[in-house]
Queue: 4 jobs
Job 1
Amino acid sequence: MLNRRRLAPAAAPYLSHVDSPRWQDPPTHSVLVQGWMAIPPQSDLDEFRAIKRKKLERVEPLLRCPRPAPGATGEDCHGELRRVDDTTLECTRCGTRYGRTNERFDLLPSDLATQSGIEHTENISAWGYDPIATQVIQAHTDGLVLDAGSGFKQTIFEHVVDAEIVGYPSTDVLSVGEHLPFADGAFDAALSLNVLEHVRDPFRCAAELARVVRPGGTLYASAPFLQPYHGYPHHYYNMTASGLQNLFDDAFEVEQLTAPASAVPIWALSWFLNSYVAGLPGDVGERFRKLTVEDLMAPADDLLDEDYVTELRASTNIELACGCILVGTRKAG
């Protein structure tokens, strides 16, 4: 069964999700699922391939080498890429070669993936476009929109470039956010939705997004604040509204800074309580469920010896921690 919701004339639905009891169509927040199935009618598959082909042809001249430049400059090579053959692109500056197929460009060499902390995972990151993202996409149908860290999309657009670390069927460019493989000012808009918490260097990612969006272009970024740990497989940084603004303030005039309906506090409270109960032994969990809000508003010091505190699973203590500590010994050299 296909999602036939068309969000714009150039949208092509082509996939079905499986094995996700939490799936909503379309969801407005990130959902991790365990598998996908491509079972489209031939007409939808032909449309999907046609859009992919047209999009990749349009994107190819904008690709640049993402490999870090020699020395300690912190800059990337950014050499133009030339077509060697149907399966290979080569940097005209440093000579690095990258893969190309009819489905995507592979600009994520293994050493760059390792440097960025990318690991294989069976999790699939998937979410739909909320009203703001949809508005950005529809406002730039004559240009190009980058979806940086797009996840697995059920719907594709001719003018939306899906950049991802995983080769989902919807992925157009395999790449990492800290080293975006595109020319300066290549895009009219960029989306970074529920991604920045999963990268090792959100400051570098923010700078890269600013680099590839043209002057006057649009950025729509979202990131969690009071969300529990949700590794994909890693989850590094949550951020306040001020923290999110700090990432982009130098490069963008901030027009909105708020919590949308998909991120108001009740989401955090519901997620927290459900995870907390799941982290308790069955009988303790049942007793915890019967507590009142007033019970839980007691001073935390008064609750530390309760079984619903002492018997909470260790992994849940990390997932929902109020804070974490680190003690280390300085390495030699």
Job 2
Amino acid sequence: MRDLLRALGDRLRKLRERRGISQEDFADRCGLHRTAIGLLERGQRVPRLDTLLIMGRELGVQLTEIVHGIELSPGIVRPSGSRLKASSISRQSMSYSSPSEVKKRTGHCGASLAITPPDGGGTSA
């Protein structure tokens, strides 16, 4: 898992640096503290999905570009013993609301990710 997080952190750092954005400025744009960006870029924290989506938006890339080619080592298992399973969600079935949009709608801070399954119902993560 450490290798996975380091690879993800390296990718985030390279994307940020390629755009000439400082950690502090990037943190402000993403609504995070600068130290959180540093921890993520060093692979010392596990990012939430909504955090990755926000970071991707601020970097001008799709989530798929952030995670492309980053894979778990074979045989990694969950603490419960069940193997990790990959699933895909099509871009058309997802919608994202920024923290400011959520605050306007609900009065609470936080981002929202809605995933619509094939049957048309929706769940938020």
Job 3
Amino acid sequence: MSNSNELNFLIHLIQDNKRIVLNLIPKIDLKKLIKITSKELLIPTLFFKLKKLKLLRYFPSDFIEYIQKIHQINYNRNLKLIEEVKYISKIFNREKIEFVLIKGSSFIFDEEYILNERMIGDIDILIKKDKLQKAQQKLKDFGFTNSADLKKIRSSEHRHLPRLIKKNNLFAVEIHSRCFSKENKIISSEIIIDKKIIKKWTSIPNRLHQLLINILSFQINDRGRLKFKVSLRSISDSLIIMEGEQKTFKLVNLNKTYVNEYLSLSEYLGFNKLTKRINFKRNIPYLIIYKILNSNLHIYLAYLFLVKWLGIIIYMFKK
């Protein structure tokens, strides 16, 4: 299965390849484009990039009106996000609780990106295990309560505590003891916290750790590695993380399981702007399996069915 025109369009739009994007515009189906961008949480990016590249005039007015409206809603939401992150940061700073913003909220100082492109659902915060309960209780002291999804947290070994919500706040808060659902040897929560960057009123990961969190969250938590998929939003995040950091990433060897496969597949699909900035070796066996699975839809669906049932069996034996 080769890339659709709509997927190719988005791959090059994310990378600001205006000439290729312009050539693909007559070939795309707008309904399919909206379906993909909705699934990938990229409608604000679609509007912002088309505006930035001065390509809005090539699209119908009702289409532009629709994506602009969603962009504006997200822009206003993320202005509120910044306020809510400031409020929570002040609580933790006052109580001397070490913390690091992770995932979407870690882009809080990439202002153009977080306001114009990034769609965010929760405020994710990483805290050392011995301070988890204190952090949760302090937020409860300031009016936060457990959300209705308490039953979804299966055990104390889950990577985050039950989500907290507060009346009149837009964003729920998830307090994490670790970033990933599965332990790995690439990076630990302790290192992320110890090497954090304190900026203004909050703390964020350093750029290398932010990149690793972004890649491993998709590969492990979202099972991107097992599904032989990439996330356009994840790659968009990676590109922002790497802006102005080319030398830093060229000096780091990222030939690690999960990371290497993510980069290899990204390069194969055409994200050259990302992969040319990183020192890694192409994972040929992983790409061969990808090509086999994607040669036929039935083969790929059979593979996903097998993976699902193997996962269920392994889970039952662990119990």
Job 4
Amino acid sequence: MTPCAKYKAGYKLQLTERYVDSIPILPKKDIVTRFISLSTQGKLVVNAGYAWDGPSGIPIYSKALAAASLPHDALYQLFRLGFVDRDRYRKIADMVFQERYLERMNAEPIWWKRGPLWWRRLKATTAFEIVNNFAEFASREDRIRKVISVPEGCDEANHNPSDNVKWDAMAWMKMVKRIDKDGK
């Protein structure tokens, strides 16, 4: 039986450590998903392993933009999943993106990479305007990424996930025996 692989495409970045931020979005009740949590006090927690597409739609790319896009994309995912009211909080999420981008540019230790303050503010404001005016579609429920199955059409009916677990366990046991035998 051919193993079934399922994944979602389109992600550029993956978080390697837990991210915690305080944001001005206060839901009526705590929201907890596999990768994203948002408390009623506005504490946003994004767990390691979370993948996002970075600063899409902005014609330049920088580490500061990539980092600022993390809380923004996590909030947009909560919009798409219906946990947070998109119409009420989308502009606030866009403003969080702008603030985080400016904070990260200001934190650049090499002065000539930072540029003058007016330039950093202009870049942050321009990025905000792009996101605020053109990213509304990304917050809609119909923008949830589809699961891709390989081979195409495989599903739970013809795939037993425990087959992979048994094989992995057997392969691991053989490797351990080989290491014990060879002493490596």
